[in-house]
Amino acid sequence: MKIAVGFDHAGLPLKQVVLEAVRAAGHEPIDMGTHSAESVDYPDFAEKVGRAIQNGEAERGILCCGSGIGACIAANKMKGIYASICHDTYSAAQGVMHDDMNVLCLGGRVIGPELARVLILAFLNAEYQGNKAGGERLARRVGKIHKLEDVGRLDG
Q1: For 2-128, CATH number?
Q2: What's the whole-number mean pLDDT along residues 94-115?
Q3: What residues act catalytically?
Q4: Do 63 and 53 contact (CB within 8 A), yes or no?
Q5: Segments making up each domain of the chain, as ranges
Q6: Can you give the pLDDT at residue 134?
Q7: Second label for 85, Cα 20 to 30 Å away, from 11, 15, 66, 150?
């Protein structure tokens, strides 16, 4: 898979770890920046990663800002982008398996390199189960998410 990765200045300390972890898992990272420690705005990188997924340049994304929260909020404003902050391996895998999460958000000021590596591995190794036998309830729930995204309500 091609994985779009983006960092603001506070996520930058995890950049090499993320790039190496993606490669070690057998995937190709697409570096969307930042490339220096100069202060930048996390929504700019959330948009770059989101657009790469929307345009089919990448299948998934990883965003790192200080806490992971700002990048997560920004990314979720984009149609078809399903981002979550995950600082445990269960959520990193379960988010993909049950909720079709396509962007992992990490806090560069919250987690260290070893945890980042195992979170990325859990995220990249997970597959959405809603299109597998027995996954009907997962697909139904994800369908409701899509309806909220498209219509803004479930009863409309």
Answers
A1: 3.40.1400.10
A2: 97
A3: 65, 98
A4: no
A5: 2-128
A6: 83
A7: 150
